[in-house]
Amino acid sequence: MCRWIAYRGAPTYLETFVAAPAHSLIHQSLHAAEAVTGTNGDGFGVGWYADRDEPGLYRETLPAWSDENLRHLCRQIRARLFFAHVRASTGPATSRANCHPFAYGRWLFMHNGQIGGWPQMRRTVEGMIPDALYAARMGGTDSEALFLAAIAAGAEDDPVRAVTATLETVARKMRAKGVTEPLRFAAALTDGRDLYAFRWSSDDRPPTLYWSESEDRLLVASEPLDGSRERWALVPPDHALVAPAGAAPRLQPMTLRENRAA
Amino acid sequence: MCRWIAYRGAPTYLETFVAAPAHSLIHQSLHAAEAVTGTNGDGFGVGWYADRDEPGLYRETLPAWSDENLRHLCRQIRARLFFAHVRASTGPATSRANCHPFAYGRWLFMHNGQIGGWPQMRRTVEGMIPDALYAARMGGTDSEALFLAAIAAGAEDDPVRAVTATLETVARKMRAKGVTEPLRFAAALTDGRDLYAFRWSSDDRPPTLYWSESEDRLLVASEPLDGSRERWALVPPDHALVAPAGAAPRLQPMTLRENRAA
Amino acid sequence: MCRWIAYRGAPTYLETFVAAPAHSLIHQSLHAAEAVTGTNGDGFGVGWYADRDEPGLYRETLPAWSDENLRHLCRQIRARLFFAHVRASTGPATSRANCHPFAYGRWLFMHNGQIGGWPQMRRTVEGMIPDALYAARMGGTDSEALFLAAIAAGAEDDPVRAVTATLETVARKMRAKGVTEPLRFAAALTDGRDLYAFRWSSDDRPPTLYWSESEDRLLVASEPLDGSRERWALVPPDHALVAPAGAAPRLQPMTLRENRAA
Amino acid sequence: MCRWIAYRGAPTYLETFVAAPAHSLIHQSLHAAEAVTGTNGDGFGVGWYADRDEPGLYRETLPAWSDENLRHLCRQIRARLFFAHVRASTGPATSRANCHPFAYGRWLFMHNGQIGGWPQMRRTVEGMIPDALYAARMGGTDSEALFLAAIAAGAEDDPVRAVTATLETVARKMRAKGVTEPLRFAAALTDGRDLYAFRWSSDDRPPTLYWSESEDRLLVASEPLDGSRERWALVPPDHALVAPAGAAPRLQPMTLRENRAA
């Protein structure tokens, strides 16, 4: 169970949300409140959009709480949109390539959850990544594979449809292999302008996902950041939060063609 | 509040106590039971005596639970005496040089506790390390400074006297500087043959320290290792456990010349 | 162009060949003599057989020359057979999972060379690893993929045949994809008892590979270790050095069914 | 012999000088031209001034050439003044705290060279750092100690005088201890506005130091960056380059009160 936060709004220093408040992401790396595992010490990452179209990326295998570089970068880097993620591994090794967010061209992705039975499913899910995208497969996580599979499924054109279709396909393949552990997915995706967040699970226990909007900013997070004064709302299960640049965010059901497995 | 374990006995694989049992040290790195901070993720280290007189040392900045090298080494290395330590920093950075155990010649040392007001006290305590030993000062911790100061005070000849005198001197210098935070000390020291453990504090809350003896081995640890069947006893406050090679361990008071500050 | 050394013989401290002589592997990490790239600073690894059937493994992303843990381990660990490798990446990232040697069960493998056009070829070569072995694919290197493909081709039963067949297949697939860069391969493989080394290339420039035998030990290396008094012989191109436990090493041609591409 | 570059001018992406040109600093980390040691793989660092008065800092123990985070940061971060440094250790361990640049408040410092006989001299030079500054001593290098000693000697008010006086004192203490190895010093210092560079040695072999000025920027570096079209001039031995914000740089002799030792 990882913890993450996505921000879009007036250019702001990353430290405002990553390092500063009582329940900042760095704080959550040691003491997550709404997670099964309270410690998220298996690496971390930040991805941000400043002046360029492509995001910057800083990922490290140390726990977020002990990385002095992270504090420096969060204090210096100002972004109009950023993702930050602290990792609690569900299996794959602690390496930079396994840390979120993942970048592909202008796109960033991060994820909390897992593909049940990953060692069994990995080959199959990697098979959903076409040759042209396969060189972008750097690590061994289920999360990165889901991201590249969703890109292959058209996420650059229609993120909600592509992500939903990808989850549907993976869940079907899991059932075909007899995997009974769930597919759980609380994730964020962006091209640096539009922001998408997803809360979905193959069982009835999707990971928590909150959002908070004020006039000049949108926050999406695994759990509310205390110390900030925003009001937080839960994204309903099996819904996407769709937040195009310059328009109001809206909730959209993630409709699956098949019935869900119990 | 770090966690540590010391073992002396029949040559045994490190994994028996570091990686295997339910409350192994790796387990404690994520879930310490008797510590203020439940997470000990600021690096770790093992020091061991195998065929040579000088100890081997493996220290790393990753949390113990995510270091695959540690698992390999613990599975391969068999030692007649070893120290293992998981760190929760009280301030100094997460670097290998700040990880326990510390080695000097044939000696190993590790520590749980702290010198209160360390940023203020550091210069003074480093001043207790003579020139000849100063090149061995690699990091910035209070623990390493205490070790080298104790060596300077004669720990190679009379460990209990030297450690007690060092603590006494440091506590006096703390009072002289007006430091009100305590000096707390649960530590282990060895030359690869004799084993010494210390439980002492300048206030009435010394860190816990347990020991357990069976016919062929002696274990000393911050907290009992569950899953092992040994019975564990607390070392009394202000006492040293003295365990010469080939003789029964005994408890010995750490007598200070001065009264302790409240 | 990586550098590596394999040792089999009387149990010896790793430092004898990894750290000590003038042209030790650590020295070669900074100053390789017979390599295109003189610096091998993209991580390193050692794998060794001591008391257990399975090898130990220590791999790190720092350059070998600056890792104090490596010096300690080489000074303490005594092995009857070990592999040591310093890496100069031909592309894949510097991560532990991309460092040699690679382990699978009782087997160890390390490699100098490359599969030309790896980003293009990766998917195809990974396709040669069957499902049952795919969970052992930890990194993104061509070397690890070749190892697992060779295991799948029967390397546990007939290493020379399996490795030769794997190279043949990969070279054929490279030609089919129009890859003109060569497949080069100087590698070592062992189950902890028998030792195999291979020197092969799809063009006429196979990486160098030397061996040296004395009464109680066999050394195989990318380049001779100076300071040792052994005499070194080149393994001829397209030959394997086969060294069963308890028998004299012999050279064996790696016969390919097809003609080699120019 | 480390390599470094300092830039002041129109806000520019760090990659222009750190990652891009043929003789960029990353290139020099593998292939320095004018250095005794061609490989500078013992960590690196960048310090930069963007929107804040205090510099940002990113230091890492990997070689610069293999750190993907560095490439990302250099591509995203735009600064009006920055320092970048690749390290070839003269002894102290490869740790972040031993990587340049060093920061103190608004000040940044980096250095190529060394205090001869450092293990012998360390205690003495650290003694030149007053208590109030001692908490800022994070690592074990001669360079950081020189920086803090120079701050103590008044570098915030008169950098050239303070640095010269510090070198003079250290050289005198070296002679007093019978150290015959030289004190060599090619360094840069800034408060984010004014830029100072120094080239000095206690013998007649000061490390190289070049500078290049165009209308909108000043570059100072250990060796010229090829691929840039600037013309480079050597700073004469025992001279400082003084470049106040908004004024033309000037060369200024570093006058010592005592004669130099041969």
UniProtKB/TrEMBL annotation, chains A, B, C, D:
Classification via PROSITE patterns: GATASE_TYPE_2
Documented EC number(s): 3.5.1.118
Keyword Iron-sulfur appears in the UniProt entry: no
Annotated Glutamine amidotransferase type-2 domain residues: 2-262
Keyword annotations from UniProtKB, A to Z: Glutamine amidotransferase, Hydrolase
GO molecular function, one term: hydrolase activity
InterPro entries membership: EgtC-like, Gamma-glu_amide_hydrolase, GATase_2_dom, Ntn_hydrolases_N
Top-tier EC class: hydrolase
Top-level lineage group: Bacteria
Name recorded for this polypeptide: Glutamine amidotransferase
Protein source organism: Methylopila capsulata
